[in-house]
UniProtKB/TrEMBL annotation:
Domain ABC transporter: 330-562
Keyword entries, A-Z: ATP-binding, Cell membrane, Membrane, Nucleotide-binding, Transmembrane, Transmembrane helix, Transport
InterPro entries in the cross-refs: AAA+_ATPase, ABC1_TM_dom, ABC1_TM_sf, ABC_transporter-like_ATP-bd, ABC_transporter-like_CS, P-loop_NTPase, Type_1_exporter
Protein name: ABC transporter ATP-binding protein
GO MF annotations in UniProt: ABC-type transporter activity; ATP binding; ATP hydrolysis activity
Phylogenetic classification of the source organism: Bacteria, Pseudomonadati, Spirochaetota, Spirochaetia, Spirochaetales
Topology within the bilayer: Multi-pass membrane protein
Compartments reported by the entry: Cell membrane
Keyword Transmembrane: yes
Length: 568
């Protein structure tokens, strides 16, 4: 909540102006029933038409002033809360972009999406309503009680007697509300995750006739969300009737006592009518207060979730490490890593590559190939061992500098909806020559044959491209900025053998100075690499050139023979 207060306090001047206008309008509104009582009790009995018209005119003016100031202050509060939420959402998104992979894994993507969308919306609602009702409701409540006290102290005591009961309801609601709304937001996280996964895998789901299964899964998340919402709404829906009941009991007592006092000549009918108007104002003010507490509970639950992300520590901080004298471009030294710190996903991996050399990595699924790349890109810190680039420990290299060295195609990498040129350039301001050369090396000439060429549109996630076209476009993107290090993670698997061979030749020819790490399932894709690392269950089971491994590594020989027969 402190985070939200910090954002709100930056706008304290304009907020103060809005609240002041609201204050003035509410005071004017509060005077209306009292003016009515003056007309009814002082001027109507005397048939003083002049004063009645004068006071009536004043009442019309006061109503108009109340209406105008209220509308103006409400518009101002909407603008302020919109600006605050925009900044909050911006900072939250910027923070999400800087989270370490471990933090992303622990928050989960779906939860981050709901924090960015529905949680910020809840905070927006809270800030907006607090400005609209935060001044108005207490003034109407306390002011109403004060005026009624001046008009009729005895009847006001009846009203005041029920206030502790109402306070109890409000207190209880706000305490329970935070827990219930936190649970609702968590259920929303799961619902978003389900929807995201189903959308991403819709083709597979349809192809495997798993549509009904997915619908059932979604329905269960949807039902859980509804269940949580129902609990929260039940609490909120109980609030108003409970408060109404207490107030109606009070109102009945006031009417009975009021009638008795008028009959006894202790008070006047105009005062009782004004008193009843104030009673309605107080009742509405209490409803506003209870609504405020509901929004406060919801906003607080959401603000906590937002703060969790904003206050997440910077895990991948730059560390001081003295540089080594090293002729290697990339060096892994006894690197071990585990995602859950239960068992090693990579164990004791060492290798070094000179500038321009190529490392091929091969191994069964889940053997740790992509994990090794994630460590090289410093997405995670190794548990033990170290990784150096040109003798500098990657933990001591600022992220922007580190990432500028790489051209990467991840496994299942994605393309954005938009022009082909934009997808290759990726906001880096590359020249046409760089883009053309990258397309040529990536064997992506199909782009020229498409209508519109580089200006042709790509559908979301590259849905209007074949698997092989997507991969070539992604490779062109990785090559376009002429990187020092190129990483291709299983990114030529959809290419036919001929195109794959042409790609390798073009890479060797045009990017001879670039150090390359190529993860592949096909032996033919890495056969000519300077070094090949064979992984199994996170461990090195072979390292050397193709011909060395054919002699020394049974698994490698087996894979090669299976794929290439006698051609090996
Ligand atoms: N973010 C993660 N959190 C927890 N475990 C993970 C994560 N990513 C990968 N793993 C686990 O780490 C191991 C190695 O995964 P990795 O993706 O590196 O394998 P891989 O060799 O690249 O597999 P493939 O060839 O199928 O892409 C696997 O057991 C996998 O389940």
């Amino acid at each position: 909540m402190n985070t939200v207060v910090r954002y709100v306090s930056r706008k304290w001047r304009i907020i103060s102006v809005g609240l002041l206008i609201k204050f003035a309008g509410t005071i004017v509104e509060l005077l209306l029933p009292w003016m009515l009582s003056v007309i009814l009790d002082d001027y109507v009995p005397r048939k003083d038409i002049h004063s009645i018209l004068l006071w009536g005119g004043l009442m019309v003016l006061a109503s108009a002033a109340g209406l105008f100031t209220n509308v103006f202050a409400n518009k101002l509060s909407t603008r302020i809360s919109r600006d605050i939420t925009r900044k909050l959402r911006y900072d939250l998104f910027a923070k999400v972009m800087k989270l370490s992979c471990t933090q992303e894994d622990s928050f989960t993507a779906s939860s981050l999406i709901s924090r960015l969308t529905s949680d910020t919306y809840n905070v927006h609602q809270m800030i907006d309503r607090m400005q609209r009702l935060g001044v108005r409701a207490p003034i109407l409540l306390l002011g109403g009680i004060a005026v009624t006290f001046m008009l009729e102290p005895v009847l006001t005591l009846v009203l005041v007697a029920i206030l502790p009961l109402l306070a109890l309801v409000v207190f209880w609601v706000s305490r329970k509300g935070v827990t219930l709304f936190t649970r609702t937001q968590k259920a929303l996280d799961i619902l978003i995750r389900r929807a995201q996964e189903s959308m991403a895998g819709i083709r597979v789901i349809q192809a495997l006739s798993k549509t009904d299964y997915e619908i059932r899964q979604f329905d269960s998340a949807n039902t859980e969300m509804m269940r949580q919402q129902r609990s929260a709404n039940l609490l909120m829906n109980l609030t108003n009737p409970a408060m109404n009941m207490f107030l109606n009991v009070g109102l009945t007592a006031v009417i009975v006592a009021g009638a008795y006092r008028v009959n006894a000549g202790i008070t006047q009918p105009g005062i009782i009518i004004a008193f009843l108007s104030y009673f309605t104002i107080i009742l509405n003010a209490l409803m506003m207060v209870s609504r405020l507490f509901v929004l406060y509970s919801q906003g607080t639950a959401s603000a906590r979730r937002i703060t969790e992300v904003l206050d997440a520590p910077e895990e991948m901080q730059i560390e001081e490490h003295p540089p080594l004298k090293d002729e290697a471009h990339i060096r892994f030294d006894k690197v071990s890593f585990s995602y859950g710190k239960v068992r090693d996903n990579l164990r004791d991996i060492s290798f070094s590559l000179l500038p321009g050399q190529t490392l091929g990595i091969i191994g069964p699924t889940g053997s740790g190939k992509s994990t090794l790349i994630s460590l090289l890109l410093h997405f995670y810190n190794p548990d033990t061992g170290s990784i150096h680039i040109h003798g500098q420990d990657i933990r001591s290299i600022p992220p922007e500098l580190l990432y500028s060295m790489f051209g990467v195609v991840f496994q299942n990498d994605f393309l954005f909806a938009g022009e082909i040129r934009g997808n290759i350039d990726f906001g880096r301001g590359l020249s046409s020559v760089q883009i053309e050369e990258a397309i040529q090396t990536a064997q992506a000439e199909f782009i020229r044959q498409r209508e519109g060429g580089l200006a042709a549109q790509i559908a979301p996630r590259g849905m209007n491209l074949s698997g092989g076209q997507k991969q070539r476009l992604l490779i062109a993107r990785a090559l376009a900025a002429d990187p020092d290090i190129l990483i291709l993670d299983d990114s030529s698997s959809a290419l036919d053998y001929k195109t794959d061979a042409q790609l390798r030749r073009a890479l060797a020819r045009n990017f001879a100075r670039t150090t390359k790490i190529i993860i592949a399932q096909r032996v033919s894709s890495i056969k000519n690499a300077d070094h090949i690392l064979v992984l199994d269950q996170g461990q090195e089971i072979g390292y050397g050139t193709h011909s060395e491994l054919m002699r020394t590594c049974d698994s490698y020989r087996e894979i090669a023979k299976m794929q290439m027969g006698e051609a090996v």
